[in-house]
């Protein structure tokens, strides 16, 4: 049965999956949501016998209904191949009584690879399906990981170009090096004088700039997005939560249909929204634990029903979560309103104009599947250190936020439901913070790569190729711009 995609902000006619993927953001500024949430296609026991690639097809084919089986399987097989360093693609590791879903085995050692490895292939097919004769220009704001993963996916893909904007000083040095050394004649990277929210807002404004779109169109370009606002990013993320459950089931760790909790370190809300969609499809989820760092805008929202971005912006050791405007929350708000685009639009306008909005009591009651927990820097470091000292297992600061949030939740709730923690990045991307948590006296005087060497010895793990590659790679991108100058930077990149 066909699934179409509606905007969260208007009653404009729904569009096909390929059109939603190609467009990225709806013309009215809203996000695309599926017209219905499909049920899991088979029993969990049946699904647990499948490879990652076959499970991905079972899930994605329910959402991308205008793709043929051959088209979708081709996208999946090109995405989830030997660029991942494990055949399982996203293995589950049990440590300290919880299950870490390792989402960092792709080419850029962060969870964004799970969706951004497939998005370029989905986009190329979507363009063909919609007779789009213009070259696709991907515009992306990143808080650290999306940018590199997107560029790695789109580099030298025919008919595409990609421009990435990141906050200068707002990402780890390894994240920065991964971006500014990116190869590919169709790639462009620029640091901005501002934070991630400034970059994200400026990118959204470019998408809404009809004059710039027309100018680009005359030169044969059309804009699209690789941020998690693109439904082509969100749907592939559903797969790994189902896959994680199936791994536990196949290993005899849980019984079929037994409930689980899922803890997700959350900034832009896309990763945990995918887990919620999985639960709506029939995955037995008891509680979704939304883990925040000291930029705890989501924690406060779940606690009070008020979303308020008017607060100090804090740079933390988990920079991919240093976000005050969680774009994907709009999709949840839409569903909580009973799929009302007018009410959703009013909330988003209030956020834009007043910096906040407050949901109704009835909507707040619809958040019962979620639990917000926030973790301080000290608590994060203590959790990383505790896990290493107890098990020898090393996690990055984003996963550390999730682990410490889960420990706080467990202490307060005594809920011993088996819990999956989304492990979103390799510790090698954040060696300074990880070594600083485990062995603080070892940090002083060491360079980034000396800290990586130290961490490799500490964890008894070889560094990933993604790190080895940037040790000697030349710096190719040196642009620094103000947010208001980003449209001109895009013009320069495209030669228009």
What does this protein structure show overall?
The structure is a single chain. The chain is an alpha/beta fold and 496 residues long. The chain has a domain at 92-109 and 233-462: Rossmann fold. The protein has helices spanning 17-23, 44-47, 52-63, 69-79, 113-116, 119-129, 146-154, 173-180, 196-208, 210-218, 231-250, 270-281, 297-304, 329-336, 341-354, 361-365, 377-391, 397-413, 431-438, 448-459, 465-472, 486-494, and strands at 5-7, 32-34, 92-95, 98-102, 135-141, 160-167, 187-192, 221-225, 260-265, 285-292, 306-308, 356-358, 370-374, 419-423, 479-481. The strands form four sheets. The protein has a six-stranded mixed sheet.
Q: Architecture of the domain at 92-109 and 233-462, according to CATH?
A: 3-Layer(aba) Sandwich
Mean pLDDT: 95
Please indicate the percent range of residues in DSSP E strands (runs of 2 or more): 5-15%
How far apart are the first and last residues' alpha carbons, in Å?
Answer: 43 Å
Tell me the radius of gyration.
21 Å
Specify the structural class. alpha/beta
The percent of residues in helical segments reads 40-55%
Task: Specify the oligomeric state.
Answer: single chain
CATH topology tier name of the domain at 92-109 and 233-462: Rossmann fold
CATH class of the domain at 92-109 and 233-462: Alpha Beta
Shape: globular
Uncertain segments are none
Kindly report the spatial arrangement of strands forming the biggest sheet. Answer: 3-4-14-9-10-13
Helices, by number, come to 22
Question: What's the total number of strands?
Answer: 15
Q: Let me know the largest β-sheet.
A: 6 strands, mixed
